[in-house]
């Protein structure tokens, strides 16, 4: 897991796919319509969404095998809990059509970060993550984007 600001993206020499994903992210704002955006077919794409944050007890960790997630908030703020997927109990086995496995949350993740506009969280396949968490004790609406990049494209 990498957490940083988009302004620092050049500190991570992850290759052309990374640069394309960051360029896409830098072109978004809170007025960007929700939906799916093709950046490079199924190799790199993004999903812009809005939802209300929730307590961590109501969620499950997830991880992916084929794609790396780059998640960034466009409006509001949300918390993330993260842990090593190998340390968690599988609740729903990996499904290749969804590129996702889900894990029970019996204890908080080893890492907790809060993300606001201008920052990102980069999640690799071993990074089980639970996003959309309440920040500051109050449920609020958040608008965010998840950029999916085939893991084989990142350096």
Can you give keywords for this protein?
155 residues; 48% strand; mainly beta; globular; 6-stranded antiparallel sheet; 12 strands; Jelly Rolls
Please give the structural blueprint.
Blueprint: E1 2-5, H1 16-26, E2 35-40, E3 44-52, E4 61-63, E5 67-75, E6 78-84, E7 90-95, E8 100-103, E9 111-115, E10 119-123, E11 127-133, E12 141-150
Antiparallel strand pairs: 1-10, 2-3, 3-12, 4-8, 5-10, 5-12, 6-9, 6-11, 7-8
Q: What is the rounded distance between the termini?
A: 15 Å
Largest sheet descriptor: 6 strands, antiparallel
- Structural class designation: mainly beta
In the predicted model, the low-confidence regions spanning at least 5 consecutive residues are none
- Return the CATH architecture: Sandwich
Q: Fill in the CATH topology.
A: Jelly Rolls
CATH class: Mainly Beta
Q: Output the number of helix runs.
A: 1
Tally of extended strands? 12
What is the N-to-C succession of helices and strands?
Answer: EHEEEEEEEEEEE
The proportion of residues forming helix, as a percent range, comes to under 10%
Strand content: over 45%
CATH homologous superfamily placement: YhcH/YjgK/YiaL
Number of domains: 1
- pLDDT averaged over residues: 95
Global geometry? globular
Strand order of the largest sheet: 1-10-5-12-3-2
| Cα-based radius of gyration, to the nearest Å | 15 Å
Protein described:
The structure is a single chain. With 155 residues, the protein is mainly β. It has a single domain, classed as Jelly Rolls (Sandwich), CATH 2.60.120.370. The chain has one helix and twelve strands, in the order βαβββββββββββ. A six-stranded antiparallel beta sheet has the order 1-10-5-12-3-2. A three-stranded antiparallel beta sheet has the order 4-8-7, with no helix packed on it. β7 and β8 form a beta hairpin. The radius of gyration is 15 Å and the shape is globular. The two termini are 15 Å apart. The relative contact order is 0.32. The mean pLDDT is 95.
